[in-house]
Amino acid sequence: MKKVLIVDDSLDIQASLKFLLEDEGYTCHGVVTPDAAFDYVSTQEVDLVLLDMNFTQDTTRGKEGLAAISQLMQIDPLLPIVVMTGWATLDLAVNALKQGAADFIEKPWDDERLAHSIKVHIEKRADRQDLVRLSAENERLKKTQRSINFVTQSEHKQRVLAQLTQLAQSEMNILLTGENGTGKSYYAQYIHEHSRRADGSFISINMGAVSDELFNSELFGHKKGAFTDAKEDRVGAFTLASNGSLFLDEIANLSLRSQAKLLQVLEERKYTAVGSHKVLENTARIISATNSKLHDAIANQAFRQDLYYRLNTVEVEIPPLRACPEDILPLAERFLSQFSHNYKKPLASLMPCAVKALKQYEFLGNVRELKHMMERVVFTCANAKVFASDLALNNASDQSLHSTTKSTSVIPENHDLTLDEIVEQALFSRLAFHGGNVSKAAKSLGLSRSAWYRKMDKYE
């Protein structure tokens, strides 16, 4: 409930204003001096101040009121102040507005005019607060985002990057497809950085981890008190990505119910935060990604065809690492350098036997698997030298990934692994065993799809 502070030395006027405003749904608090108002605004949350212009020192010229406006604005620059006086003059009204007052009301006031003014300026305050929060969040996101610099010697990948560079200049929605671990989120950020929206925010959200119950709140935001756990306002992904790019990862994992909501926003380009009546415009560019075969999902009525056509103005397939073998060693060396620096370890180097093993290994987990492998060996190798045994690879001849007989584990016998590393390898191995099918991999481990994605997020 919005709170109005009434600053007037007449208790009768305070009582009349409280009667009117409480009937309009506001909470009211009254004080009789500007000093009391300063103390109250400094310690309490106030949405609007109704300020009389004349007090005991000066009952007609409004000097105390003008001074109070300036001091209140110093305490809270976004606080709307509606001034009231029975000694109204044009000069006083102009001076009050110059000092920062939101409106000027003559006494005796018109109830409807006053109520409308309060409503309008409280809504404007909320909008300004949202803008300040959004600007701060955007600045924070920009500072945490890293510039994407791809390492590639592969002609295949270079052609993909050239295509994405060209597409980035358009406003088309782009659908990225490809296997798990190919780095689709990095390609999405690459598109953003090479677009005309690069100064805006790049917001990424994993749709596989968003339940139907949280969909509206995550995507569109909510107002404080909109539901039981809404203890404060939340800015949704669409708002954060305004005039920027919104990356919807694992789009195929949305339920049909959530797909319908997303389709409506993409078609109408409008949305509303939960608990708000204000209609907001969607100005975000949509980049989405999936490792699923959407045509099969459409045929099985698990994915809406109309949403598919909204998302894939153009579709780009990201190649797996095994299709770009020239990139394996440069990527491995880059990851080794990165993790050696991050963990303050000596710069690790690949021995010839490790190089040979990497070239022969089939990375079904793609770049993600290679990245985590290099992170692990920074800790497990001796004297900063990485040998084939440090890579903990299975022999190609007996990899269960290629076996038709299921085994309970494909984790190598390495007693130096931490519990997190064992869990991580189990997830990737099980996913590879099931050919990248998340539903089967999750079910085989007794996990729901959302629980699976939460665990995968933990390991990037």
Automatic annotation (TrEMBL):
Domain called Response regulatory: residue spans: 3-122
Any single biological process term in GO: regulation of DNA-templated transcription
Keywords: ATP-binding, Nucleotide-binding, Phosphoprotein, Transcription, Transcription regulation
Keyword hit for Transcription: yes
Modified residues (4-aspartylphosphate): 52
Single GO term (MF): ATP binding
UniProt-listed InterPro entries: AAA+_ATPase, AAA_lid_NorR, CheY-like_superfamily, Homeodomain-like_sf, HTH_Fis, P-loop_NTPase, Sig_transdc_resp-reg_receiver, Sigma_54_int
Keyword Nucleotide-binding assigned: yes
A Pfam family annotated for this UniProt entry: AAA_lid_14
PANTHER family in alphabetical order: ALGINATE BIOSYNTHESIS TRANSCRIPTIONAL REGULATORY PROTEIN ALGB, TRANSCRIPTIONAL REGULATORY PROTEIN
The name this protein goes by in its record: Sigma-54-dependent Fis family transcriptional regulator
